[in-house]
Amino acid sequence: MDTKCEAILGLARRHDKRIFPILSEMLESEAPTSLVFEAVAEFGDQRHLPRLRTIYQKAKDEDGINQGWLDTLNDAIEKLEEKGHMPGTP
Fold this sequence. Notes:
This protein is mostly helical and 90 residues long. It has one domain. Helix content is 66%, strand content 0%. It has helices at residues 2-13, 20-28, 34-43, 49-59, 67-83.
């Protein structure tokens, strides 16, 4: 899974539009990884914000949650919120 996520992260950094549905699908999985959150942040499409926020709200108060994972998720949310626009718009 790590190799796949790293490849997806590379495509996200290149803003390859074909990666959007893959990222969306991975965010719907039961346990998206930190690399998925990084890829979503790098890709920069705010359409992922609602799902990221939902994941964060469900996870933030869970006992035993990995703080690094939660921090990466929060960083992705903040990065997308800072962008303030959808890709392809000024």
